[in-house]
Write a structure and sequence with these properties.
By secondary structure, the protein is of the alpha+beta class. The strands form three sheets. It has a seven-stranded mixed sheet with strand order 1-2-9-6-11-4-3. Strands 5-10-7-8 form a four-stranded antiparallel sheet, with no helix packed on it. A two-stranded antiparallel sheet has the order 12-13.
């Protein structure tokens, strides 16, 4: 089982069809894939990494050590189930940016992260159109499905996973599926730790220099009526090396109405396949907040129970 690595550059040549087939297979069978030659310059990624690691050392590391000492975590004897061994902060980009308000960031870092967000937003929208093409949906369908009244929600979780003395007892990040749409991750190329669950086994997502790891969230599972799946993943803490992880979440707008694409339900209907619920994204997120580290199926069932009786006109695609 080879983790899917996709060279986006190949979409421009005679290998387009085989590259699209690789993307399709990754979406249907893995829920994850790793992108190379994705159009974001390697030198720029090096700058993002250098500044993120510098910021962690200067502003976050000490605070994390104090938290660990305060909770006595170096000496735990039993598994810790209500906490993750990670140091994080969040940036919001859309519908409006909060980068100017986030404390402790120097101006150059703010500027770089703003530019990074713009590049990732463009990449996310390109990927959504590739997914549309593979699904037989019209171009722009997924972007429109995410749009709501104010456009998508887009934000970044900047994390560092410091060395952990008891990785068997404390997870870097406990197992979960992502609630949102499409996730774009720029991760450390030296310190590993990210794993996904496939066929009952935990598989490493290989650290690769200058790659962007893509994974699909619960909303894409719903819109594709289960054709594509959001996959459970976790971060295993390491005993040495601090792992950097910059995960950007391109999600539906809070008032976007999420439901299976009619074109995909019709195809499934002959086979009497399960149809997923219809709901407003924000309602799903409220539910997810309390259930993040539990299975996603009960979340979908709960949303069916409160299914909005909203008129489902076709989504107009500009």
């Amino acid at each position: 089982m080879e983790f899917p690595v996709i060279n986006l550059e190949k979409l421009n040549g005679e290998e387009r069809a085989s590259t699209m087939a690789k993307i399709k297979d990754a979406c249907e069978n893995w829920g994850f894939f790793e992108l190379l030659d994705h159009g974001i310059e390697p030198e720029f990624l090096d700058t993002v990494e250098r500044m993120t690691k510098g910021h962690y050392r200067k502003c976050m590391e000490q605070r994390f050590k104090e938290m660990v000492a305060g909770k006595g975590l170096e000496n735990v004897q039993t598994e810790i189930k209500d906490l993750d061994w990670e140091s994080t902060f969040y940036l919001r980009h859309l519908p409006e940016s909060n980068i100017a308000q986030v404390p402790d960031l120097d101006d150059e870092y703010r500027k770089v992260m703003k530019e990074f967000a713009a590049k990732l937003e463009k990449l996310a929208e390109e990927l959504l159109d590739l997914l549309c093409e593979n699904l037989g949906l019209e171009k722009g369908y997924l972007k429109k499905a995410f749009y709501g009244s104010r456009g998508p929600t887009f934000g970044t979780k900047v994390s560092n996973y410091p060395p952990c003395p008891k990785p068997d007892l404390i997870k870097g990040l406990r197992a979960h599926t992502d609630a949102g749409g499409i996730i774009l991750l720029f991760q450390d190329d030296k310190v590993s730790g990210l794993q996904l669950l496939k066929d009952g086994q935990w598989i490493d997502v290989p650290p690769m220099r200058h790659s962007i790891v893509i994974n699909l969230g619960d909303q894409l599972e719903v819109i594709t009526n289960g054709k594509y799946k959001s996959v459970e993943h976790r971060v295993v803490a390491q005993t040495d090396g601090t792992r950097m992880s910059i995960a950007s979440f391109y999600n539906p707008g809070s008032d976007a109405l999420i439901y299976p694409a009619p074109a995909l339900v019709e195809k499934e209907a002959e086979q009497k396949k399960l149809v997923y619920p219809k709901f407003v994204f924000e309602d799903y997120m409220k539910l997810y907040a309390g259930l993040k580290f539990q299975a996603k199926e009960p979340r979908f069932e709960a949303m069916k129970a409160v299914e909005s009786n909203v008129n489902l006109g076709p989504i107009a695609t500009a």
